[in-house]
Amino acid sequence: METAASSAHPRITINPNICHGQPTVRGLRYPVQNVLEYLASGMTEAEILADYPDLEVEDLRACKAYAA
């Protein structure tokens, strides 16, 4: 059963069957933690989106807002 992490962050979902229940982006197998690590390492949004075409700019912003 997939649920939104919160009503404020509908793009961030939690499903115990995906990535061991870690918060992920839209139920895809992209943990929020990984996206934040890419950003922290200096990757730009454009680089991340080029490397991971399933992601959208709104997903990256949702990860940052969720972390805040």
TrEMBL record:
Transmembrane segments: none annotated. InterPro entries: DUF433, Homeodomain-like_sf, WH-like_DNA-bd_sf. It comes from the Bacteria. PANTHER family: SSL2733 PROTEIN (PTHR34849:SF5), SSL5025 PROTEIN (PTHR34849). This is Antitoxin. It comes from Hymenobacter glaciei. The lineage of its organism: Bacteria, Pseudomonadati, Bacteroidota, Cytophagia, Cytophagales.
